[in-house]
Amino acid sequence: MASFHCYTLFLSLIISTVAAQNSLILPIRKDLKTSQHITTFRMGSNSAAINAVVDLGGPFLWFSCNDYASATYAPISCGSAKCEATKGIGCVDCNLPPRPGCTNDTCGASPYNPFLDVLVSEGYAVDTFYPKSGAALPDFSFSCMDKEYLAGLAAGATGMLGLAKTQISLHRQASAKLKLADTFSLCLPSSGDGILAIGIKPKSVKSTPLIVNPVSTYPIYTTGDASDEYFIEVKAIAVAGARLNLKDSYFSIDKNGVGGTKISTLQNFTAVHNSIYKPLARAFAKAASDMRIKSAAAVAPFRACFRSDSIARTAAGPAVPEIDLVLGGKDATMWRIRGANVMVEIDRKTTCLGFVDGGSSPRTSVVIGAHQLEENLLEFDLVSSRLRFSENLLLMNTTCSKI
Questions:
Q1: CB within 8 A of 215, min separation 6: which ones?
Q2: Is this prediction's pTM over 0.85?
Q3: Which domains are delineated in the chain?
């Protein structure tokens, strides 16, 4: 436990001094109605406040420009070097009076709202990005989006902040402009404020390789493009220390990009292939019964639910069977999911297993969702292609809001 205390102290010291260094910090808060995680920053000459949903798999920043006014806003011309860097698609024009989001001969962008499942033709632009703490980022590439396509976003959010492995994701632009190693740390809060920090390298507890899905998972792509989302190698899943009897093929990625395990901040709860979910839920219910936890009626979208009064409490939340993701790589380790990350408290009477059935033919077999990530410190190191993680901070008597 001493090493954990040293770890959190080390992280706190780094973050307390980061504003004086060439780094960048954004706050993150959870919207309780949608369970989306929101960050706030400012853009342009008027320092307009933008609330955006944090999208780990999103390729770039987009937000509604309908009410946006900035003297430093500039569209990216189609055919320019900047357009090539964005992987812009053709040119877009606008028949209305020029304004942000409505210009001619502009590098084509395709912002996507996954909650509405809509891909829109827009244009790329640049302006100055101002974080809560750290250096401003001038000439920051992003895309506008018309406000009529914001349905599904949390109240007050007008865009999405992309953190994928693209040239114009926030961390890639920040690291290039500030001459930092391309790494970022993410701590999603269950309450209070969390943090997104770029250019910080906290001491890690565990790590696993980030692997590549050879086929893009974005709604529009060119043949041969690899996915820019974050995949890790999960070899097996265990419940209460016992491995489930599952086909290895679910955990591998085939030539069409189907299968494997990715991490998502937009998937509220970890979704797994139906053939994984069934044995997982059965094993969990059996292990819970062995702990004298009593079952309860299912509450959609959850199927395995229990009486709250039969569940004891620990520092990490409900005392329930642990779920282990057995990871691959030379330093094979486990990502242990426990307590509050395992369960969802519906009300005072009912608590449910926070994993959902992803169907019989999902594109990705295991999508690790935001609920399982909350109060875990994650570091995405794009230099060494590794994910470093702390597991639940509650075990260390801290939270994302305290680091």
A1: 225, 226, 227, 255, 256, 257
A2: yes
A3: 2-198 (2.40.70.10), 206-402 (2.40.70.10)
